[in-house]
Amino acid sequence: MSEQFDNTAGPLTTESGAPISNNNQSEAAGVGGPLLIQDQVLLEKLAHFNRERIPERVVHARGAGAYGTFTVTADVTKYTKAKFLSQVGKETETFLRFSTVADSLGGADARRDPRGWALKFYTEEGNYDLVGNNTPVFFIRDAIKFPDFIHTQKRDPYTGSQEADNVWDFWSLSPESVHQVTWLFGDRGIPASYRHMDGFGSHTFQWVNEAGEQFWVKYHFKTDQGIKNLTQDEANKLAGEDPDSHQRDLRESIERGDFPSWTVQVQIMPAAEAATYRYNPFDLTKVWLNEDYPRITIGKLELNRNPENIFAEVEQSIFSPAHFVPGIGPSPDKMLQGRLFAYGDAHRYRVGINADHLPVNRPHATEARNGNRDGQGYDGRHGRQKNYEPNSFGGPYETGQPLWGPTQVSGLTGEWETPKHAEDDDFVQAGKLYRLMSEDEQDRLIANLSGFIAKVSREDIIERAIANFAKADENYGKRLAVAVAELRK
Ligand code: HEM
């Protein structure tokens, strides 16, 4: 032991607490001889190292997180009875994990990809998770298509790379994707940092007030830092030079006390208006127009504390669209419905059956009380408490109060298409978005899209893809056709 070190931590020990005499030489059978199986220090160290990784998230593997505070700034009690929203000025602790979607854990941050926006509110009525993106819409509208869609974004089974053929084959055969694709290949497709982008709950959710009145709601988080994006060229350079660019930016800004914040807004639709709204309000490929349902500011979200340990608090963090609190519930959106199952299932596989008990995941402002017990990693927190209900030993009891209100249903079960409302088709909002863009942005959109489409090997896929954009806007389709033809000369 050298004098130059601070030795106050005490000696190294094995997992069972026995002091370790040598952490640099393994125990050998004689000088220069083979190693001994009795060297517990070596064996334990190698075995633990082999088990350091857990499966990465099947999507959104790459991300960064931070704790923060949500503060209510407007009275919304006429819309929801959720306690954390019950009073102006009320503060709730939060944890937000940002991510990209398609890349693996070791990928780069500066990619053209939606950004995940997974926000946990540690409320006194349990954790409320809002697991959205930095985009208000999505590529598809039915959960059953999600694994196929993601397979086209991830690596091809034969080439091991993302393939333009697969991406455009799927998108061109799923015309409902045109709106989200237009968004993604526009300027906002590569945010300059996690701080300089908006967040969205994306789906429609239910709010219900004390009187049982129901509303449909969409969440928007408007960045107070202003929107900043990267061009494709800037991103290509940054991804190579600093793959951790967004993660570093977030951590450093919080370290220097420059806390990023977002203005929290909602669009609110009285439940009865859903049936006649011009677009199906439960179709995730569509937005609700601001002119129909103006955004109302209800709060402020600030991120102000970095996690101490990335593995424990970010890699093992879990968020589920099924984590609701009283006053908030799901809508019949077919994507959201599928997600209500998918996340808990992923957590049980990826982090284990006791994932909810980890410090980052468990409720902070209340405690979990139920008869679920044991399983791998169980820490015995319940001691001798009874593990069943009902019981007459003072155990926890059911409330008889559903978290959200009932939904009216009718008709026969079936593999129905999402019902179309008066102005619904796959292209109308994509066309609107294209025409909203400045000429410069349209130029960049065409360049970004054509650069990617031109890599497709089959003409029929290219034609089908361009035909979809032309249905959104004739000029959009024409310009793309010219740009792609030019690149393929
Ligand atoms: C039915 C469609 C979908 C399915 C089946 C699905 C499934 C999954 C799964 C299995 C994970 C990994 C969870 C984990 O291991 O912890 C995940 C992560 C994530 N998904 Fe989805 N997803 C769907 C659609 C969406 C949509 C529409 C959005 C946003 C609007 C979204 C946003 C996210 C985010 C932000 C994460 C990362 C959560 C985190 O930071 O831990 N997903 N998704």
Question: Could you explain how this protein is built, in words?
Answer:
With about 500 residues, the protein is an alpha+beta fold. Helices cover about 25% and strands about 15% of the residues. It has helices at about 40-50, 145-155, 165-175, 180-185, 230-240, 245-255, 310-315, 335-350, 430-435, 440-455, 460-470, 475-485; strands spanning about 65-70, 90-100, 115-125, 125-135, 200, 205-210, 215-225, 260-270, 295-305, 330. The N and C termini lie far apart (about 70 Å). It has 12 helices and 10 strands. It binds protoporphyrin IX containing FE (HEM). Protoporphyrin IX containing FE binds near residues 59, 63, 117, 339 and 350. Protoporphyrin IX containing FE binds near residues 117, 131, 138 and 317.
Key descriptive features of the protein:
globular; single chain; 10 strands; alpha+beta; 12 helices; 489 residues; ten-stranded antiparallel beta sheet; binds protoporphyrin IX containing FE
